[in-house]
Amino acid sequence: MKEIYVMETNKGCIQVLNCLEYPMRTIKGKSIGLHRYVFEQVYGPIPKGIYVCHSCDNNKCINPEHLFLGTAKDNQQDALSKGKRKRAKNKSKEYTTW
């Protein structure tokens, strides 16, 4: 298993340094987001279909205090409330953009 290099940021994130996007690990032959793995180790199983979201908005953060469970809609609303996404309108439907 490849070593994980982390540092603590000034916002309290425990940030994985040696990855490009979401830190991933192979556990029992299955690829899993490291933030999900950490959440399960600290808080227990994650219900099927539920996201592990970052309150800090740092996708490289694995600090369990910065992780919370939510649906896809919860994750979108969290991003919208923080100005990370904007809601756009199309004549036929409303959709969310980055």
Structure description:
The model has no long low-confidence stretch (mean pLDDT 85). The radius of gyration is 15 Å and the shape is globular. Helix content is 20%, strand content 31%. It contains 2 helices and 8 strands. It is of the alpha+beta class and 98 residues long. The chain has one domain (6-97): Homing Intron 3 (I-Ppo) Encoded Endonuclease, Chain A, CATH 3.90.75.
Which keywords apply here?
globular, alpha+beta, Homing Intron 3 (I-Ppo) Encoded Endonuclease, Chain A, 2 helices, 98 residues
Oligomeric nature of the chains: single chain
Strand line-up in the sheet with most strands: 1-2
**Helix and strand succession?**
EEEEHEEHEE
Secondary structure tally, helices: 2
First-last Cα distance? 34 Å
The CATH architecture classification is Alpha-Beta Complex
Show unreliable segments.
none
The coarse silhouette is globular
The top level CATH class name = Alpha Beta
Structural class: alpha+beta
Counting structural domains, the number is 1
- Let me know the largest β-sheet: 2 strands, antiparallel
Helix content: 10-25%
Cα-atom Rg, whole angstroms? Answer: 15 Å
CATH topology: Homing Intron 3 (I-Ppo) Encoded Endonuclease, Chain A
